[in-house]
Predict the structure.
Amino acid sequence: MLIELKRDSHVPLYDQIAGQVRGMISRGTLRIGDRLPANRELARMLGVNRTTVTTAYAELMADGLINSHVGRGTFICALPAAEKSAPANEQLRPAPIQWSALLADDRRDRWLGGMPPSPGKGFTSLAYSLPASDVFPLDEFRRAVDRVIRKERQVLLESGSTGGYEPLQEYIAAQMALTGARVGPEQILITNGCQQSISLIRQVLAGPGDEVVVENPTYPGALSVFCGYDSRHIGVPVGPHGLDLDVLEGVLSQRRPKLIYTIPSFQNPTGVTMDMAARRRLLQLAARHRVPIVEDDIYRELRYEGPSIPSLKALDECGLVIYVSSFSKIGFPGVRVGWIAAEKTLISHLSAAKRRSDLHTSLLAQAAIYEFSRRGLIAKHIKRLNKVHLERRDAMLAALVKHFPEESTWNTPQGGLGVCVALPKAVDANQLLLESIERGVVFSPGDHFYSNLPPSNMARLSFSTSTPAAIEEAVKRLGGILKARLLSLKKQGIARAAQSYRALV
């Protein structure tokens, strides 16, 4: 097999390999029954990681083109669907509809569609802000599910109230009251996670053409909602204390945005936390200009050190804060249970929007979360998570000191799930990602988090989903790539300087 790889292409190498093998099958160069080289053999021939070939073969196997037999090898077993010859008497079928031509232009794909793919086996992911899955309390949660089904039986499989499961609403209101936020159960709307919460808020409060203030950088899911083709956004920089309030004050004095979206605690992706003085000033600015604040407080419980700071909702005296949170980051990202806390009038409109969207959130999921939480198991799990995450954060920071070039800088977050790294200015994070994928490591380049003017050398490295040993190895590989690239750039600079000198003399 003759396979030519373009290493400077944006197409991943495993995709290039799979595509060229698929083409050889279509052209008849490879025929049914032919044996493909072993993974290790082809990797050696092409000079790539064995995982790259394994991933390419997995793609071909998923298409039904090849089969692997233990002890025998990997063989061509079928032709691509478009190449199968139809029976002579079969009538010509109309061409399949071209969906791409019918899709509306939606620039929101830039953020959610551009995130690194979930890696397969053999990869270390530093890309996703998710809780450590290896400490999920599976047995305790299963028992919680069993208990609520025995107690409420088929009721949990029926349609429920759009507002949510009442015991869970009451539990959330009581927990928020303990932190100083004065809300009642009727001010709580249960949603399918923070992403739906943000989408509902935007539907109700920001119409086509309305301006919304967003942090720059910020959570890509929020950008996909607030910065779509029918929205106008104003990006306000994030500094060492969170949202730049001087810039925000200038914006509010000249514009009339409908919302201010902020993540005040362990901001994603920077990891910074807004201090008490900044929180009070933000609330004063919003009250003076009568602009609601959407407080995304999803990381609040993930504090590893330092004093706890009241939420904006707890400090709010004017009813301007729309509070959003979820159980996703503190234990159960796949269960999809979040909530919005706001004034009753707004909650009624948000409930109507949710009813139009999906009627209600799963009663079984809500009841299981409530049962798990009311028994104190969620608090116990958060404590265990924070201990694990702290160990992994420290492993990440130590590995960065040990393996990254001195030109790199980063912060030390007191909580959250990732570290924001400024790479050497000469390094492009997206180009680094292409090379790091070949070394079995994925991360999130910074431009996924920016509404405008993204720096090319920023990266977010999440530490929560990998063990300390895996983090050490992944950062070591990234550091090796960075140092090699800087050395190459230095040599090129010396060569150019020498050439200029020779031209002068």
Notes: Confidence is low (pLDDT under 50) at residues 88-92.
